[in-house]
Write a structure and sequence with these properties.
Mean pLDDT: 93
Distance between the termini: 43 Å
Oligomer: single chain
CATH topology: Nitrilase/N-carbamoyl-D-aminoacid amidohydrolase
Number of domains: 1
Number of strands: 16
Structural class: alpha/beta
Order of helices and strands: EHEHHEEEEEEEHEHEEEEEEHHH
CATH superfamily: Carbon-nitrogen hydrolase
Helix content: 25-40%
Strand content: 25-35%
Shape: globular
Radius of gyration: 17 Å
Largest sheet: 6 strands, mixed
């Protein structure tokens, strides 16, 4: 089975209305180009002051989610909304939530980011403490679709191979990594990490990313890409707002897994994700 996938690279700002409108236009462009799986980056509606993000969080059936859901149904595509701020029971900390919609507009999977980005990259980069304004999720998300079995992650999750191993154990053939990588970490780590996760798990890694200056205190690296199960980068966005395409070939994936059966050789079969979460403290 083969089909076309697209990674959309955006430059989201604090103007949520404009950012969402641009994302919706890019989805239409990708669908017109023949993409069946279209993916958007992390925080696709808003990047700006954290207090504004918190106040603009909405429920999973809120108006911004519904705009993307409706467009997936209109175009008959599988659409990954990389992430939006989803209201939680903690009024000061929404979830960072990714949703995969199907071609009828149905919700196929919901994933709330598990690993939160708490780092201080000063003096050459920002101080970002995601856990101060975001509630972590606790559950993995894998769903069988007509395009293959898809696993969901978000950004900083890429540094935790045990999560990707768990997704693969649950059948994932394509793993999505919507992101907003900082420039210092992106320049040195983005592509090596994506390729490593693809090689380790013999899966496609589809990674739409934010790019450019979002506001005074935030800039993202970009270079959205798609990596095949052999670890080859088969599509990559240049700097700037753009779209990259690649063919997903599940027979190619199954051939690699058959010839080099790493999955059967795996000794550690399950991961306690609660232990993973405790490592953040």
């Amino acid at each position: 089975m083969q089909y076309r996938a697209a990674v959309i690279q955006t430059r989201t700002t604090s103007d949520a209305e404009s950012s969402v409108a641009q994302a919706l236009r890019s989805i239409r462009v990708a669908a017109k180009a023949g993409a069946s799986l279209i993916t958007l980056p992390e925080t696709v509606a808003f990047i700006g002051p954290e207090e504004t993000k918190v106040s603009s969080a909405e429920s999973i059936d809120g108006p911004t989610f519904q705009k993307f859901r409706a467009l997936a149904a209109e175009l008959g595509i599988h659409l990954l909304v990389g992430s939006l701020a989803e209201r939680s029971l903690d009024p000061s900390r929404p979830y960072n939530t990714s949703v995969l919609y199907g071609p009828s507009g149905e919700t196929l999977a919901v994933y709330r980011k598990i690993h939160l980005f708490d780092v201080d990259l000063r003096p050459n980069g920002p101080r970002l403490m995601e856990s101060e304004r975001t509630l972590p999720g606790e559950s993995v998300a894998v769903v069988k679709t007509e395009l293959g079995t898809i696993g969901l992650t978000i950004c900083y999750d890429i540094r935790f191979p045990e999560l990707f191993g768990e997704l693969t154990l649950r059948g994932a053939e394509i793993i999505c990594v919507p992101a907003a990588f900082t420039v210092p970490t992106g320049r040195d780590h983005w592509e090596p990490l994506l390729r490593a996760r693809a090689i380790e798990n013999q899966c496609y890694v589809v990674a739409p990313a934010q790019w450019g200056q979002h506001w005074e205190h935030r800039r993202s690296y970009g270079r959205s890409m798609i990596v095949d199960p052999w670890g080859v980068t088969i599509a990559q966005c240049p700097d700037g707002e753009s779209i990259a395409y690649a063919d997903i070939d599940l027979e190619h994936l199954h051939t690699i897994r058959r010839r080099m059966p790493c999955g059967r050789h795996r000794k550690v079969r399950r991961v306690d994700l609660r232990s993973t979460l405790s490592c953040e403290s």
